[in-house]
Amino acid sequence: MLKNAMSHLLGARRSREPQRAVATGTVQLPLPPALSASLGCDAVGVPSRYGFRLMSHLPRTGCVFADADRWWWIVPAGSDLDLDWPAQAAYAKGARVPAVRPRLIHQPDNRAPYTPPIPLFLMVCQLTGVTPSWAPSGAARAVSAP
User: Fold this and answer.
1) DSSP secondary-structure letter at 141?
2) Residue 89: helix, strand or coil by DSSP?
3) Whole-angstrom distance between the N-terminal and C-terminal Cα of the chain?
4) Which stretches of 29-125 are assigned E, i.e. beta strand?
5) Would you say residue 51 has pLDDT above 70?
6) H/E element holding 51?
7) Tens digit of pLDDT for each residue in 4-26?
8) Distance of CA 2 to the CA centre of its chain
9) Which site in 1, 16, 63, 126 is 20 to 30 Å from 119, CA atoms measured?
């Protein structure tokens, strides 16, 4: 009976750990099972020195993971479209991040795991001293400037 209980506990613990991808050196950030990720998930990583400041100034914060080097913010899939994220930010499609042991440090109160990408983008630009760019460099804009 004790062996069975321990295997259940260890199995539950393992399911919450990041899934490793040995070939690529990345891990999949595991969202808590109670949260709905109907929009898909990407992640934006910022240097850890900006983490607390970002979290305190954002109007809403979703799931945030951290390791020694970066804090990873869960955003809806495709949040890189038409946004030129600063060089200090790392954008990870599918929330597959180059991290060693990221851990969940913030979980939202509601069922959505997302941090709104536009306020996050603007705050990252402000903290890194980069002027926000709404289209990838070199891309044609839909409306020309007068």
Assistant:
1) P
2) coil
3) 75
4) 41-47, 64-66, 70-76, 90-92, 96-97, 103-106
5) yes
6) helix 51-57
7) 333 433 443 434 444 544 445 88
8) 38
9) 16
Phi, psi of 64 (to 5 degrees): -130, 130
Q: For residues 55 and 141, give the distance between their C-alpha atoms in angstroms, rounded to a whole number.
A: 32
Taking every pair of Cα atoms in the chain, the longest distance, rounded to a whole number of angstroms, is: 75
Residue 49: how many other CB atoms lie within 10 Å: 11
Cβ contacts of 97 within 8 Å, gap of 6 or more: 26, 27, 29, 43, 45, 65, 70, 72, 90
Q: Which residue has the tokens 């020694």?
A: 68
Query: What is the rounded distance in angstroms from the CA atom of residue 77 to the CA atom of residue 75?
Result: 6
Tokens at 67, concatenated: 């390791």
CB 42 within 8 A of CB 111: no
pLDDT in tens, 102-144: 999 999 988 899 999 999 999 999 999 999 987 655 555 444 4
Q: Are 104 and 32 a contacting pair, CB within 8 Å?
A: yes
CA 5/CA 10 separation, integer angstroms:
9
Q: How far apart are CA 2 and CA 143, in angstroms?
A: 67
Torsion-angle region of 78 (φ positive above 0: left; ψ -120 to 50: alpha; else: beta): left
